[in-house]
């Protein structure tokens, strides 16, 4: 859960869990820091924050975050473009998800025309 969405009760439970697992606390903090850097409006500050995040991941010594860091580095150019124009492909991803769901519900739609009809009908509600 995002830090800003935690109520007092949840926050207290999270603190108790962190006492049991310091590694989990580091992981949660890295996740929150990454979320925060995506909200920085200035591109130079965003890039600096991203580089700082890379350093913190290296220092944290959490194997899963090494993989996350490598993935972020592989997509760094696209992430920096997000900082520039603040547009994502979320709508297209959602549409692809909806089409896959329609295919799954229809047990695979053998005719492309029928699939198109089902997709168009489902999009009428958007």
TrEMBL record:
Q: Which InterPro entries match?
A: Transpos_ISL3, Transposase_DDE
* Matching Pfam families: DDE_Tnp_ISL3 (PF01610)
Q: Which residues form the Transposase IS204/IS1001/IS1096/IS1165 DDE domain?
A: 4-118
The name this protein goes by in its record: Transposase
């Amino acid at each position: 859960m995002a830090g800003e969405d935690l109520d007092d009760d949840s926050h207290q439970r999270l603190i108790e869990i962190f006492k049991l697992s310091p590694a989990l606390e580091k992981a949660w903090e890295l996740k929150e820091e990454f979320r925060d850097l995506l909200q920085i409006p200035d591109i130079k500050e965003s890039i600096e924050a991203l580089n700082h995040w890379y350093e913190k991941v290296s220092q944290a010594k959490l194997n899963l975050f090494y993989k996350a860091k490598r993935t972020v580095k592989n997509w760094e150019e696209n992430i920096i473009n997000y900082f520039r124009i603040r547009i994502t492909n979320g709508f297209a991803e959602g549409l692809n998800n909806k089409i896959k769901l329609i295919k799954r519900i229809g047990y695979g739609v053998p005719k492309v025309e029928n699939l198109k009809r089902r997709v168009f009908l489902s999009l009428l509600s958007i």
